[in-house]
Amino acid sequence: MSTTKHKIFKIKVSDDGKFTVSKTVENTINTFLSEANNVYVNHSVTTLTEDIEEYGILKTICKYVLISIIYKDLNSTSLNLKGTSKKIKEVVQKEVESGNSIEEPNILTDLDKEIAEFELKRETEKFTD
Fold first, then answer.
1. Tens-digit pLDDT profile for residues 55-93
2. What pTM, to 2 d.p., does this model score?
């Protein structure tokens, strides 16, 4: 089963009055969200402020914005999507997002079953001789 985790991104706010995200921060968040094994669940945003006194007036200044992204981690699970097709990634991500359980595929063919039965029969004959 996938593990629910969260990752925090801390973004420094510039003093110029405009909120612009640097390309580095934007690329970091985009790379994290584009990872196939990270399925987005939810997020929260908060600010870290500092109270300073300027000429006898108390001001609150926003120093940082924290973005917490809650996601399901599919690494080290049977649903690991590394090396799979785009269609499979889309289907699995939709199912994980909706909370539906996904049955593990049965990859045994009839030939595999016959070989397993043959090997089991051979092992039991070996011990009875």
1. 888 988 888 889 999 988 877 777 777 777 778 777 777
2. 0.59
List of residues 6+ apart from 57 with CB closer than 8 A: none
Type of residue at 58:
L
Separation of alpha carbons 88 and 68, rounded Å: 27
Work out the widest C-alpha separation in the chain, in whole angstroms. 98
Residue type at 45?
V
Rounded CA separation 110/115 (Å): 9
48-85 exposure pattern, b = at least 16 Cβ within 10 A, e = fewer: eeeeeeeeeeeeeeeeebebebebbbbeeeebebeeee
